[in-house]
Specification:
With 218 residues, this protein is α/β, with parallel strands linked by helices. The protein has one domain: 3-Layer(aba) Sandwich (Rossmann fold), CATH 3.40.50.1110. The protein is built from 7 helices and 5 strands. The protein has a 5-stranded parallel β-sheet, sandwiched between helices. Strand 3, helix 4 and strand 4 form a beta-alpha-beta unit. The termini are close together.
């Protein structure tokens, strides 16, 4: 059986930006990948609302991905593949990040994975790096989620930052020998909050991820 860890944020957890609740299990992209790939694969969702790559959220605890990742690697080993999709929360206005600095955070996670013994026979697992769908402008008013954190503030534009992640992640994937997928080619953020994926987007993303996993020879 192939063990695949999906390490991400609310769009891996399954937050529904239209209702403010969680998408049902069978609608989440991780669950759909499991259904598509079948019993020879074990898809392990590790999504957390608000998770970043390496930054501490000043308002919410336990959101730093670099702190959580080692525990996940150890608890789920041996792992064939890590699907890594983070960066949306890193673009929030109070972090004042750029695509470059977010990419540096992703690089740290990649290096942690590649230095680990959480793969088969004590080796490191492979990595599929996904750049998240960019956030949208002009729709950040949903009370179910504090989307004002993605508003333009003091010259820092989270929408522009998130749009720059795909190119940055592609460079990191090439540099470190990771698989790469640009989620924006298959799914976009919902119109209600401009951040989270609709059920239709989860399905489209799942189709692309499943195909990419097969293409990587996992």
């Amino acid at each position: 059986m192939k063990n695949i860890l999906c390490f991400g944020d609310s769009n891996t957890w399954g937050f529904n930006g239209e209702s403010g609740e969680r998408h049902p299990y069978e609608k989440r992209w991780t669950s759909l990948v499991q259904m598509q790939l079948g019993d020879d694969y074990n898809i392990i969702p590790e999504g957390l609302n608000g998770r970043t790559a390496v930054w501490d959220d000043p308002f919410n605890q336990y959101r730093n991905g670099a702190d959580a990742l080692p525990f996940c690697l150890l608890s789920h080993k041996p792992l064939d593949l890590i699907v890594l999709m983070l960066g949306t929360n890193d673009s929030k206005n109070f972090y004042h990040n750029t695509p470059f600095s977010i990419g540096k955070g992703i690089r740290r996670l990649i290096e942690m994975i590649q230095a680990s013994d959480s793969g088969l026979d004590g080796n490191a697992p492979q990595i599929l790096l996904i750049s998240p769908a960019p956030v949208k402008a002009g729709s950040h008013d949903d009370a179910a989620f504090d989307v004002r954190e993605f508003d333009n503030l003091d010259g820092h534009n989270p929408v522009e930052v998130s749009m720059g992640l795909a190119a940055e992640y592609q460079r990191k994937a090439d540099e470190y020998g990771c698989g790469f997928l640009d989620a924006a080619r298959y799914a976009d953020s919902c119109d209600d909050d401009g951040i989270h994926l609709t059920a239709e987007a989860h399905k489209s993303l799942a189709d692309a991820v499943s195909a990419k996993i097969i293409d990587m020879g996992i």
